[in-house]
Amino acid sequence: MRQNWGVALCWLLGAALLAALAGLLQGHGSVFWFYAALPIAAGAVLAHVLAAAWPLRRRRQEEPADEPAWRTRIMLGLLVGALGFGFGVGYGTNHLTWFGERVTGVVSETEQVCGVNAPACHTRYRLTAAGDDLGWASTCGQDGSVGTTVEVDTDPLGWIPSMSPGCATQRRSAAVVTGLWLAGATTIVLVRVAGQLWIRRRRAVPQGSSRPFGR
After folding, report:
1. By the 8 A CB rule, do 23 and 90 touch?
2. In Å, how far are 5, 54, 124, 188 from 202, measured between CA atoms?
3. CA distance 147 to 68
4. Tens of pLDDT along 171-185?
5. pTM of the model
6. Rounded to whole angstroms, how far apart are CA atoms 106 and 149?
7. Cβ-contact 100, 155 below 8 angstroms
8. How far apart are alpha carbons 101 and 111 in whole angstroms?
């Protein structure tokens, strides 16, 4: 029983790490890294499913499996995996919220961006601060022209593109999805704890009184 619990916990931790890694790669804003991160994100979804559906205990061959309970845990894993995928997509935004440094840059260049990764064409701005190039920044509709100043959050590592603190909707959405994902991961843990307690209680009951829980 302890071995099964430990394996499930490892799958859950692995799912969180894979989701974060996929998000870090996608947050770079590169088409190459976006598609390179997709297999990792898919692996994170699978790991969530395995964490939720991993057998609660070793079942004897003569014992029937509790298929409804097992299928319910699979659906829970898929749901939390989907939320983990959403967390990965918004990780770049969260990264700037958690680790970003607020700086004021000067617009040195503007560019119209239209592409498959953008729902509509928008203007982005290349910024400099104290002679350093901050790269292209997302301002979420904030207007600016060459020579004007724009306040942005920048990644100290230089991996995540800078973003204006005015991108409130994007930041709020990323925070909500992250909260739901963490709540889902906690639910997986609680479900497994409840399952283990149920099994322990059933083992204290004479055999044949009811059908065992878990697979």
Report:
1. yes
2. 17, 19, 62, 21
3. 64
4. 999 999 999 999 999
5. 0.80
6. 4
7. yes
8. 24
